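Hello again, I could really use a second opinion on something today. I've been puzzling over a protein and I'd love to understand its fold better. I'm sending you its amino acid sequence along with the backbone structure tokens. It would help a lot if you went through both lines with me. I've dropped the whole record in just underneath, so have a look.
***
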Amino acid sequence: MRIGLAPVCAILGLGILLGGAGAAKAADRIVFGLDWRAEAEYGGYYQALANGIYARYGLDVTIRQGGPQVDQAQALLAGRLDLDLASNSYLALNLVQQQIPFRAVAAFFQKDPSVLIAHKDQGHDSFAQLKGVPIMISADTRAGWWNYLRVRFGYNDRQIRPYNYSLAPFLADKSAVQQGYLGSEPFLIEQQTGEVPRVLLLADAGFSGYGSLLVASDKMIATRPDVIMRFLAASREGWEEYLNGDPTPGNTLIKQANPEMTDALLAYGRGVLKSHRIVEPAQGMIGMMTQARWRDFFVSMQLAGLYPATLDYTRAYTLKFVQAP
């Protein structure tokens, strides 16, 4: 993976500053919120915590899990979180639409890992073949990437069936199709049925939205940019170690935080992150974003009727912390 000159210089500069500060300077405390429970999709952050990478960058980081009953966005707005992960690009644009002064500073997932899952041998082998087929999705998905499928493949809302985050309806019906996450549901379905399901990755259908976006307040961006830069640099190192080195330290912390995680599921999740290049871009550094991709995403969602053409989508993000060709 190539790292641009500017990020290298920034990291070296940070190292000099940290080295000069020594033990006399207290670590900056960061409370960092995840958008779901601890799993392989957060392995880089847990790896950075476990291996002392955050500490080496002068940061005292606390990771707080999300989940179905956890409102991390509200915690961020209330100041209980310093940094938060937003699952997708929609959430960043929604902040602009609602005039909330927070924005994305990095995108740790270059591809949105959302998927549609079907049983094999049902003729549900492509997004095009699912036109008109009943599909179980959540309310959030209906307000989000479902709209891309409507425009791209001609789906309609009559196809929608409720999704309650349980695999039971899918397992009971061979014709069923449901939403899922690349690193979890496909593995769990295979474990219970002994068959590999059909998995259709949204990004493979041309969906240009980012995933796992790091969000900070405009105030923090203006007053503590060095803290954000150090957090990003440390998290990149954590991700590089987790994906390309020994993931055991990160996985140990993940299992402590979320006892439902097994070694097999963690290995599967890490494997699909690597094989589909979810985290590591083909060019550039981990976390990078570009103006062109944000523009493409906004235009496609504006055409789908989600946002007015007058919305200033550039307020959803800043490129000052990331490499942007």
